Amino acid sequence: MIxxxxxxxxxxxxYENDIAIGGATVREGLTALTERYPNLAEVLLDREGxxxxxxxxxxxxxxxxxxxxxxxxxxxxxxxxxxxxxxx
Length: 88
What we know:
Elements: E1 2-5, E2 18-20, H1 26-36, H2 38-44, E3 55-59, E4 62-64, E5 78-83
Parallel strand pairs: 1-5
Antiparallel strand pairs: 1-2, 3-4, 3-5
């Protein structure tokens, strides 16, 4: 799968935004991504290892809920990580 990283998360992936990663499911792909970029895990995951609520995960443009991260993903699928930005 190709994981697309944008915005503030880019600094944790050495500014790579389209990252080819292995895994049979979205969750496995995200795990492989955080193993490749350990600093990313600190901002992407909470203490229990779940995706923080400030990040949205989409598979081929379809937003996934936390319970849907075990959906299958092939090497042709695109996983987007979108981070909510707040401020005033």
